[in-house]
Specification:
Layout: E1 13-17, H1 21-29, E2 35-42, E3 46-52, E4 59-63, E5 75-82, H2 85-94, E6 98-99, E7 113-117, E8 123-128
Parallel strand pairs: 1-4, 5-8
Antiparallel strand pairs: 2-3, 3-4, 6-7, 7-8
Length: 130
């Protein structure tokens, strides 16, 4: 008898535990320009919301943390890409997003980048064309 080998087919989503789902939704669909893909209630007064870059397959899920777990102030590990890093930095700063003071340019194979924080101080990275 031969057993099938399972394989991961894709990254379904990444989850950012969020206390204020409406505020997070406004952040992702506003300054970042994501689209809302899913918004459904679950459990007792909870919501599962997924947002994504238009045309992207992988989503970011913004949902309340598990009971007893904190939300906010996390290093998400999420890296986003833009063709124009300087314009994106200026756009997010003008929208009141907590962004690093300037774009870091380390040279070599490292792309220009800056860190920014969502309304609950979760940290994301924006990288751009070199």
């Amino acid at each position: 008898m031969t057993s099938a080998v399972a394989a991961v087919a894709k990254i379904a989503n990444v989850i950012v535990p969020t206390a204020d789902v409406d505020r997070a939704l406004a952040f992702y669909t506003g300054p970042l320009g994501f689209e809302k893909r899913v918004d459904i209630p679950f459990g007792d007064n909870y919501r599962w919301v997924e947002v994504a870059v238009p045309g992207a397959e992988t989503t970011i899920a913004i949902a309340p943390p598990r009971e007893g777990d904190p939300s906010g102030g996390r290093e998400t590990g999420i890296s986003l890409y833009t063709e124009d890093i300087d314009a994106m930095h200026a756009q997010l700063a003008a929208a009141g997003v907590d962004v690093d003071a300037e774009v870091s340019r380390l040279g070599g194979p490292v792309p220009p980048m800056f860190w920014f924080r969502d309304p609950e101080a979760n940290v994301l990275l924006m990288v751009g064309a070199g």
